[in-house]
Amino acid sequence: MDNKSREHVARARIHSGLPRQGPGSDKNTEETVRRLPSLPDAARIYDLGCGPGRASIILARILRQKIICVDLQQSFLDQLNDDAAKRKLEHLIETRCGDMSVLPDKKGSIDLIWAEGAIYAIGFDAGLRSWHPLLSERGMVACSELSWLVPNPSEEPIAYWKANYPGIRSVAQNVMAAEQLGYECIDHFTLPESCWWDEYYNPWSRNLEDLREDAKHDEVLRAVIERASVEIDLFRRFSNEYGYEFYLLRKSDIKIRQAVSDDAPQIAQLMAKSLREALPFLPIIHTAEDDLMHISTTVLPNNEVFVAHNEREQIVGFIAFDDEWVHTLYLLPEFMSRGIGTRLLNIAKVQRKRLMLWTFQKNEIAKLFYAKHGFVVTKETDGASNEEREPDVHFEWIAPI
Ligand code: SAH
Hints:
The chain is an alpha/beta fold. The protein has 13 helices and 15 strands.
């Protein structure tokens, strides 16, 4: 056997019999499944990279629908079939040995893809990209992914993950990547630390101990055990800096991407149109040329600007923010009340700990919108210091800890 195969065998040995092959817990999976938006009857549901199938069983038990469970390793699927039979759920579990990146389904036919601790195997973006056309109109992807939880992680975890999972990104980067690929991020949360210990690292540590004797005569096994111990120890010390983030994503025909300078004319027109519709009483103090100049020379160069666009590249909304302020958030009137404003605002929130903004007191829709998203009023003015001389209100949002 060559060294690569020996390493593969050693890894399989230290992972054998684990209830899960990645961080997670039955309790957490169950809570997440119960929070899913409702699915159609006879929905097409996959558990991809299902491993021994802890999530598959929970999905079947709660949703009472058939779950198609895919993994490259037949031994895991055998384990899952046995488990399903014991729990009298075999009629709801269909196992398929195969590759999660090549599903045989028709376009628009899958309602839910569950990929807990598994999307990393083909890459977060590659997975989302390849599943997008297969999902039904409101189809969802529920996946967990190793993610940085802080803006500046320590050198030690950076070095370890650079060598062992270079694809790791921050939560904000993953949310933005999903939005850019045509998914609305309807929820995301960090798995509690217990999800790493109880059903994953603790059983894993026990396997490591049991194999120490064999490792005395097997240097490859010894090296694999050593690396696993380093990983476990690293998590013990740096669990506040990285973790598994669970992302609940829904297919959308609207995508969000970072703005480019060519977007300026569309953004300027959109701003003028939506302002006039929302606040028809405001004096018009800027010409179309002023607006374009403002967007090109001030807004785009000095802010982070994201646009929401449809499949024809029509821009339907945008947000501009800097370190502290949301300067503008506008939607075309006919695209309001579809959650697009929430998605744009979330792009800013996921990157910041605190945000402030001004809106006019008469803009009832905006005030309700910001209040709904956790912004609180901190002061009101008579408008003497704004260009329009229109009473305004200052909102502030502070990220929950
Ligand atoms: N969801 C399970 C397993 C996560 S580990 C759990 O939470 O316990 C990742 C799993 O993905 C492994 O079982 C591995 O065999 C499987 N896998 C890796 N690459 C795959 C691919 N391309 N297609 C299908 N399964 C794959």
